[in-house]
Design goal:
- The complex is a heterodimer of chains A (416) and B (534).
- Chain A is of the alpha/beta class.
- Chain A has 3 domains: 144 residues, Nitrogenase molybdenum iron protein domain (Rossmann fold); 121 residues, Rossmann fold (3-Layer(aba) Sandwich), CATH 3.40.50.1980; 100 residues, Nitrogenase molybdenum iron protein domain (Rossmann fold), CATH 3.40.50.1980.
- A 6-stranded parallel β-sheet of chain A has the order 1-12-11-10-13-14, with helices on both faces.
- Chain A is globular and about 60 Å long.
- With 534 residues, chain B is α/β, with parallel strands linked by helices.
- Helices cover 43% and strands 13% of the residues of chain B.
- In chain B, strand 2, helix 2 and strand 3 form a beta-alpha-beta unit.
- The two termini of chain B are 51 Å apart.
- The chains are: A alpha/beta (416), B alpha/beta (534).
- At the A-B interface, helix 1, helix 2, strand 3, helix 3 and helix 4 of A face strand 1, helix 2, helix 3, helix 4 and helix 16 of B.
- The complex binds iron/sulfur cluster (2 copies).
Chain lengths: 416, 534
């Protein structure tokens, strides 16, 4: 099926955040975790710019900025890191889980953060210290979450008990909705990765069945499979059909009766369908172009095409995980142009030629595209906003409808 | 290693981008990993630029390391030249590329491009954004200024000056340039070149033709100005015209250096002196103000606050060490301890300790002030989307002085209204928490909400932030052994008009603490009052 879709492979300048960005939502999800980037002033500036607003005086993330003298001797860099962590944990005793997050500079100078984490973990018994890479040379945007969750997997306890594990940092409100649905379906034990508190890290074993809530969790899925857990492939839970298929995969794995399943999901399906229908007029037939960013592009294109009648012109993704996206790719309209990787200048040439009604892109490209008369949706909003499940399906559709609705209202235009 | 929560300045290559983006036909190839492309959004979102910054990033990945990153760089430079056809090309390395030492300058030179190629040395592990901007502008000027250029004979023409230092993403640079140009025009002085903002590489070539250089922003313009001074013997005008008094001095300096008549410019004047003299402003007297920003803006705003509006400066500082000397000198004048730091938490602690009635700072201090519930006006970079208003809003020149009067005064409860609020404070239809009518509801204490209350919601973009919930008291220093107020004394304190209440409370507590009193009763209150009245 993948073979039927044309895939354009690009290798040029990329215009996308690095994996450090995930800290912005991960630190809200794991409420007693701290994320310490070991990096440069650039990394600190990226986090600050991506976070956009400084709501908190002392957020649960920070950067240990490598300085000239740290580059002189690596032994010193380790000692410096130890003292930064000592001071940090003395100031924030409520922190139960500390991630040392690797960056491009820390990786290029080969600062071994896994050894540092082991050393610091032993030194601070009240705090678990782990590490992962959010560097731009290794990870793209949402892959930072994948690396973070994959780092948690070896810490999970072992179990033989049957359970369902939902993998991916969902907003609490969405996670709770799904928990209620699974309870109604009759799946007794449901866990989430990541947990809200470090102490609630779920156990895992051969009778664990897991659903991926996000399409960008390849390493985490592989690590869970290593622990014996079994992945339940499905569409991702966007829109009526995606959410139904995703829930059904769990129901089937727990051998629940199909009629019972249909009864439980019927009200949610109806609510979602009604909420989506409100936006159909505005979106149907509109052409949409995705720049590669969050890896949510393929599932979202599928949802927008199937349930709102939009026409995907090009669906860019930084990385195409063919196995995890198999169901999604099969559900895309025949002939949809996929692009993997990026050469941003050439892609901008294509978007100018295609003149879509809506482009989904990063913050750096949005205003320049608007100036060309192309409406835009910021992809970063898709990872900050609750969009999964039946009860967010309408909100998800609205995110795409709003830029178009706005244009309909305005009687002034910069382009005239 | 330095533990950093929020940063005032980005890395030096962001400074280089501010210069490249300000100019017309310069392109910048930055050897950097993909994540560094975030810097584009500073320009397209915060400044609402409708074009991408003229920057090509090589976006090398781990798999390229050690094999062909130099090749990648070479291709990127060639492609960028072919596509964008710049008249000058900047090449440099970000923090990561600095470590892999691919020598962007050498690689670019080897390509033999038909335009000047200017390699940048941007030591990311030592320097910051402001330095990077100054250094990049200097490198461009050195490379492009025509050494043979000289001013034409003065007879029969108006004097000409260059305006140096305005960049992209600068605090009000766009409007300052317009205002200063207008002011010079009143004196019969023309602006030959404004740079980097709006300049082409051809403009830089003729920098030597001006009769004088005016450094508007020392942080970004002074390195280049010093070189121009040495090379072309062009005199430099260094008074920064922020505030009424400084603008008057600026006009006199221009008049002296260029031999023109200052009168027409001075006649324009600003409304600030009269607004400060008018009776409604009496209530501004001695308001305690804390000033923090880049050194140039902080020092200038402190002067406006103290000398032109009649505030009392209770704190003064800057985040850029390069301007430390000026800040120290100014701080000595106001008898305050200068605060030279880029540690956000240190700034917050200093503001909390000074308990000012107004904060003048950057967007960073705006957040601090919000948490501490102190009014605040933004007077310096780092900038936010709100610092690029649609309306004309310079802070330089006489119009700038008008803007500053409004900016510094509007966050406060004003004159007659403050008086009325005090008079009716016990009225049953009125409550103490009411704000002045020209201040939005946003200045009222926000209704609760602490860190954990944040949803994973719309906190996503550099658009105006939602009202910040106060931190749960953290950061506000409370001495452990403060004397306690008796109910009676606390009630009496409540009867004192609230615009002097803070001062009365502080004085009384100081008085009690000095005498080792454990409790403050009615007597203590009135004894303290008479003590401080002397
Ligand atoms: S791309 Fe690398 S250097 Fe740049 S912000 Fe990300 S981790 Fe830091
Ligand atoms: S708010 Fe009212 S009283 Fe205060 S200055 Fe404005 S008009 Fe005058």
């Amino acid at each position: 099926m993948t073979a039927m879709l044309p895939v354009l492979r690009e290798r040029g300048q990329r215009e996308v955040f690095c994996g450090l960005t995930g800290i912005v939502w991960l630190h809200r999800k794991i409420q007693d975790a701290f994320f310490l980037v070991v990096g440069s002033r650039t990394c600190a500036h990226l986090l600050q710019s991506a976070a956009g607003v400084m709501i908190f005086a002392e957020p649960r993330f920070a950067t240990a900025i490598i300085e000239e003298r740290d580059l002189a001797g690596l032994a010193d860099a380790n000692a410096e890191l130890d003292s930064v962590v000592d001071r940090l944990l003395a100031r924030r005793p409520e922190i139960k889980l500390l991630f040392l997050v690797g960056s491009c500079p820390s990786e290029v100078i080969k600062l071994d953060l896994s050894r540092a984490a082991a050393r610091l973990d032993a030194r601070h018994p009240a705090t678990r210290v782990l590490n992962y890479s959010g560097s731009g040379i290794e990870t793209t945007f949402t892959q930072g979450e994948d690396a973070c969750l994959a780092a948690l997997v070896p810490q999970m306890g072992a179990t033989d008990a049957a359970s369902l594990l939902v993998v991916g940092a969902l907003p609490d409100v969405v996670e709770d909705q799904f928990r209620r649905t699974f309870a109604e379906l009759g799946i007794p034990t449901v866990f989430a990765l990541p947990p809200r508190r470090a102490a609630d890290l779920p156990p895992v074993g051969p009778n664990t069945r897991f659903l991926l809530a996000q399409p960008f969790l390849g390493d985490t899925a592989a690590a869970l499979a290593d622990r014996g857990a079994v992945h339940l492939p499905a569409l991702f839970p966007f829109g009526v059909e995606g959410t139904t298929a995703w829930l059904r995969a769990a129901a089937a794995a727990f051998e629940l009766d199909e009629a019972h399943f249909a009864r439980v999901v019927a009200p949610g399906r109806e609510r979602a369908a009604r909420a989506i229908a409100r936006h159909r007029d505005r979106l149907a037939g509109k052409r949409i172009f995705f720049f590669p960013d969050s890896q949510l592009e393929v599932p979202l294109a599928r949802f927008l095409a199937a349930e709102l009648g939009m026409v995907p012109v090009e669906v860019g993704t930084p990385y195409l995980h063919r196995a995890h996206l198999a169901h999604e790719l099969a559900a895309l309209p025949a002939g949809t142009q996929i692009s993997e990787g990026q050469d941003v200048d050439r892609q901008l040439d294509r978007v100018k030629a295609a003149r879509p009604d809506l482009a989904v892109c990063g913050l750096g490209l949005a205003n320049p595209l608007e100036r060309l008369g192309i409406a835009t949706k910021w992809s970063i909003e898709l990872v900050f906003t609750p969009v999964h499940g039946f009860d967010q399906a309408g909100d998800l559709a609205e995110l795409f409808a709003r830029p178009l609705a706005r244009r309909d209202r305005l009687t002034v235009s910069p382009c005239s | 290693m330095q533990l950093t929560v929020w940063t005032y300045e980005g890395p030096p290559h962001v400074g280089a981008m501010r210069v490249a983006t300000a100019m017309k036909d310069v392109h910048f190839v930055l050897h950097a990993p993909q994540g560094d492309t975030y810097a584009d959004l500073l320009f397209t979102m915060i400044e609402r630029r409708d074009h991408r910054p003229p920057v090509t990033y090589t976006t090398f990945q781990a798999r390229d390391l050690g094999t062909d990153t130099a090749l990648l760089l070479q291709d990127a430079i060639r492609d960028a030249y072919d596509r964008f056809q710049p008249q000058a090309l900047l090449v440099g390395a970000s923090c990561t590329a600095e470590l892999i030492q691919d020598d962007p300058g050498g690689v670019a030179k080897a390509l033999g491009l038909p335009v000047p190629v200017i390699p940048l040395e941007l030591p990311s592990y030592q320097r910051k954004e402001g330095w990077g901007a100054a250094e990049t502008f200097y490198a461009l000027v050195r490379a492009l200024a025509d050494p043979a250029a000289t001013p034409a004979p003065r007879e029969g023409r108006r004097p000409r000056v260059n305006l140096l230092g305005a960049t992209a993403l600068g605090f009000r640079h766009r409007d300052d340039v317009v205002e200063v140009t207008r002011l010079l025009g009143l004196m019969g002085v023309d602006v030959a070149v404004t740079a980097p903002l709006g300049a082409s590489s051809a403009d830089l070539a003729r920098l030597g033709e001006a009769d004088a250089n005016i450094v508007l922003y020392p942080e970004t313009g002074d390195t280049a100005a010093r070189w121009l001074e040495k090379t072309f013997r062009t005199p430099t005008i260094r008074t920064v015209p922020i505030g009424h008094g400084a603008t008057v001095e600026f006009v006199h300096e221009v008049a002296t250096v260029l031999g023109v008549d200052p009168a027409p410019a001075l006649a324009a004047g600003s409304r600030l002196p009269w607004y400060s003299a008018s009776v409604d402003s009496t209530y501004l007297t001695g308001k305690r103000v804390f000033v923090f920003g880049d050194a140039t803006h902080a020092v200038a705003m402190a002067r406006v606050a103290a000398d032109e509006i009649g505030f009392e400066v209770v704190g003064l500082g800057a985040y850029n060490r390069e301007g430390a000397r000026e800040v120290r000198a100014a701080a000595a004048k106001y008898n305050v301890e200068p605060l030279i730091t880029d540690d956000y938490l240190a700034v917050e602690a200093a503001i909390a300790a000074a308990s000012p009635e107004l904060v003048l700072g950057s967007q960073m201090e705006r957040h601090i002030a919000k948490r501490l519930r102190i009014p605040c006006a933004v007077i310096s970079a780092p900038v936010h989307v709100q610092d690029f208003p649609a309306r004309y809003s310079p802070v330089m020149g006489f119009e700038g002085a008008n803007v500053l009067f409004d900016t510094l005064v509007h966050p406060l409860t004003m004159g007659l209204e403050e008086h009325l609020l005090a008079m009716f404070r016990d009225d049953f239809e009125f409550h103490d928490g009411a704000a002045a009518s020209h201040l939005g509801a946003s200045t009222l204490p926000p209704a609760g909400g602490v860190e954990g209350g944040d949803r994973r919601g719309k906190a996503s973009s550099p658009t105006p932030p939602p009202p910040a919930p106060p931190a749960s008291g953290r950061g506000v220093a409370v001495a452990a052994n403060d004397p306690a107020w008796t109910t009676e004394a606390e009630k009496e304190l409540g009867k004192i008009p609230f615009f002097v209440r803070g001062k009365a409370r502080r004085n009384t507590e100081k008085f009690a603490a000095e005498r080792g009193l454990a409790a403050i009763d009615l007597d203590t209150l009135y004894e303290a009052k008479s003590h401080y009245a002397r």
